[in-house]
């Protein structure tokens, strides 16, 4: 059994995806984001915040009842708490492991550049999304450096580009791309990368790039 949170929600049981009603989908996502059991009252309040405690509890019981029931349980239910079944694989948890200790593999880049539950507006999702945004940026830059040290400039470029796409105003990622273009003997592309960043930074924040990135291309600008 597999739950996908990166790039959108999906539940796979057996050979393919399984349809999940909205309430149960939110419940599975909440538990997939938590490593420890979630008290039933907390889960109900988070998932149905605009209703009474009694109504939220009823919605929680209904979602549990309507959830697909494979041989191995998706959710372990106790009197007071809920937790995701131990046999359920979650892509976000594996991505978090990559972020904590980035290994130089293309799979890591693919997972780290994916958004967490895009389009979901719930506060408990947005809090995790904010954390994921910063964690994956740091990890992508570490990965880019490791690929570059190992001589794999292609994947170093892919990791740095993913960081720029995640945060277009992050200067350290742009600087890495400029350095990679220069190392590849491509000064024109290095200048274009710098000028693209400079134009966006000016337009959105009214700022200039730092001297660190400017010094890389200053001889070329002359």
Automatic annotation (TrEMBL):
List the Pfam families.
Answer: BTAD (PF03704)
> What are the residue boundaries of the Bacterial transcriptional activator domain, all occurrences included?
88-221
Q: Which residues form a coiled coil?
A: none
**Which domain of life does the protein's organism represent?**
Bacteria
InterPro entries given in the database record: AfsR-DnrI-RedD_regulator (IPR051677), BTAD (IPR005158), TPR-like_helical_dom_sf (IPR011990), WH-like_DNA-bd_sf (IPR036388)
Q: What is this protein called?
A: Bacterial transcriptional activator domain-containing protein
Q: Which organism is it from?
A: Lentzea roselyniae
Q: What is the lineage of its organism?
A: Bacteria, Bacillati, Actinomycetota, Actinomycetes, Pseudonocardiales
């Amino acid at each position: 059994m597999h739950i996908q949170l990166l790039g959108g929600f999906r539940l796979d049981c057996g050979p393919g995806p399984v349809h999940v009603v909205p309430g149960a989908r939110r419940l599975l996502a909440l538990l997939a984001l938590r490593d420890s059991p979630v008290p039933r009252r907390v889960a109900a309040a988070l998932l149905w915040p605009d209703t009474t405690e009694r109504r939220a509890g009823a919605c929680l019981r209904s979602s549990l009842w309507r959830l697909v029931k494979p041989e191995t349980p998706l959710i372990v239910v106790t009197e007071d708490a809920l937790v995701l079944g131990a046999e359920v694989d979650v892509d976000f948890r594996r991505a978090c492991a990559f972020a904590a200790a980035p290994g130089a593999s293309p799979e890591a880049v693919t997972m780290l550049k994916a958004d967490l539950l895009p389009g979901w507006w719930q506060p408990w999702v947005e809090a995790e999304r904010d954390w994921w945004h910063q964690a994956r940026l740091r990890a992508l830059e570490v990965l880019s450096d490791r690929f570059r040290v190992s001589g794999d400039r292609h994947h170093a470029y892919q990791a740095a580009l993913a960081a720029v796409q995640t945060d277009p105003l992050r200067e350290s990622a742009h600087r890495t791309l400029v350095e990679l273009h220069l190392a590849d003997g491509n000064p024109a592309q290095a200048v274009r990368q710098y000028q693209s960043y400079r134009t966006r930074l000016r337009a959105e924040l009214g700022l200039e790039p730092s001297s660190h990135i400017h010094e890389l291309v200053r001889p070329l600008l002359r």
